[in-house]
Specification:
65% of the residues lie in helices and 16% in strands. It has 2 helices and 4 strands. Helix 1 runs antiparallel to helix 2 (90-132). The longest helix has 44 residues, at 6-49.
Length: 133
Amino acid sequence: MKEPSQEQQELIYKLSMFEQQMQQIQEQIRAVEIGISELSELEKGLEELKGKTGEDVLTQIGRGIFAKTKLISEDLIVDIGSKNFVKKSIPETEEIIERQIKKLEDVYEQLAKAMNDLNCEVEKLVGEFKAEN
């Protein structure tokens, strides 16, 4: 079997680097998608709390574990970062979640653009290699 030429070895190396970058971006995209999904579910859960003061509701206390609780107020205690907790109404909390979703959507767009740019670079690199050989 014939040894790859210096140009072929360089192409293989560059393509390998691009592949690693693409895998990293794909992992980040998946994490962002999960974050958006979780926040959207949280938003739905908040909507279900509206008007339920005085009623029994199920409250998640852990993964797949719920407790029956009585909702005594629609005020929520929200972690606004660095373990700083403040009282927020459901609409205020929904606004916070919407801002977080928007930020994640912006990150998603940036990652998708980066992935597209890498794809273009790969196509250009392969095209140039084919034209030379």
